[in-house]
Amino acid sequence: MSRNVLKMSRFCPLGRPGYVRRSDDLLFLTLPSHGRIQVAKRSRFSYVDQDFHTLSSVAAVPRWETLMIKLGVLFRIGLALALALTLSAGRASASLEIATFNLTDSNMGSGFTGPFVKVTVDLTDATHATLTFDSLTNGGYTYLLAAGGGAGAAAGNISGSFSLLSFSGTPYESGAPALSDGGSGNMDGYGSFNQRVSTGAGGPDNAYTQITFTVLNTSGSWTDTGTGTGGVFEGNDKGNFLAAHIGALASGEDAFAKTGDADHATRQTVITATSPEPSTMALAALGTLGFLGYGLRRRLSK
Questions:
Q1: pTM: predicted TM-score of the whole model, two decimal places
Q2: Which among 143, 237, 133 is positioned nearest to 185, based on CA atoms?
Q3: Does residue 140 contact residue 133 with C-beta atoms inside 8 Å?
Q4: Are 172 and 209 in contact, with CB atoms under 8 Å apart?
């Protein structure tokens, strides 16, 4: 039997001698000397007859064709992994920089231990930054974001000229009053901040567990989430740039044990925009090589 009798092709019609075609869970091979033969799907390179006996008389697949088939498999695996890693890197680098800060100091006195609030600063591009304040639980208390009467529950001291684009939040209880633009103003003991967002006045029923607001740089661009040149923030008259007004709520209680302000932003993590890692590039190259090999195998099998 000639060496080219056994060739792989999903698209050649069944009945053409020497070609294999998938059908449900089996492959079918038509050979002039054997007729229509079932080929086990689980063993791609071991061809059997209807009784699943090995056909020793069938010529083996040429080595170059086996290599091309394996390269085709590597292509699909490599391309899938490269795509997944590339998308993951794309998500990580969708922003110029993302940083998290903990507000670790308060004016509530002893018995209330921080950190009290986590702030995530997302510099989505050179002119847009989103600040997200999340209440934390420590020392038996949950520190909710709460400040009414025009005071700020979440505050930042933004560098340069800017405008407030939007704000939103997650209330601790349903029915809490809507958030409002608190403008600029003082956060007790921590100086003045040029952008605040306020909750309704009152106790936990008006408090929020999360507050987010987005600002637009209208006078230039930002390069990072810090306070230096090009940073989103600048220190105020007391050197502070993030603050929150909080209420300490003990488990099972319906009133704050105490309220106050939290500051002393301590940077925790920074994620900056990155180029694709070498591993991603290597997988992409492997996928490309497999693609070329797969194409060559199909071309030579015609």
A1: 0.64
A2: 237
A3: no
A4: yes
The type of residue at 224 is D
29 residue type, one letter: L
Give me the amino acid identity at 124. Answer: T
Tens-digit pLDDT profile for residues 233-250:
999 999 999 999 999 999
The answer to whether 168 and 212 are in contact (CB under 8 A) is yes
Residue 27 token pair = 């492959």
For 180-237, write each residue's pLDDT tens digit. Answer: 999 999 998 899 999 999 998 878 999 999 999 999 999 999 999 999 899 999 999 9
Three-state SS annotation for the chain: CCCCCCEECCCCCCCCCCEEEEECCEEEEEECCCEEEEEECCCCCCCECCCCCECCCCCCCCHHHHHHHHHHHHHHHHHHHHHHHHHHHHHHCCCCEEEEEEEEEECCCCCCCCCCEEEEEEEEECCEEEEEEEECEECCEEEEECCCCCCCCEEECECCCEEEEEEEEEECCCCCCCCEEEEEEECCCCCEEEEEEECCCCCHHHCEEEEEEEEEECCCCCCECCCCCCECECCCCCCCCEEEEEEEEECCCCCCCEEEEEEEEEEEEEEECCCCCHHHHHHHHHHHHHHHHHHHHHHHHC
Cβ neighbours of residue 12 closer than 8 Å, sequence gap 6 or more: 19, 21
Partners of residue 167 on adjacent β-strands: 213
* Tokens found for residue 51: 């009784």
The domain segmentation of the chain, as residue ranges, is 1-61, 62-93+275-302, 102-272
Cα–Cα distance between 211 and 40 in angstroms, integer?
60
Type of residue numbered 142: T
Widest CA span in the chain: 94
Strand partners, 156: 195, 242
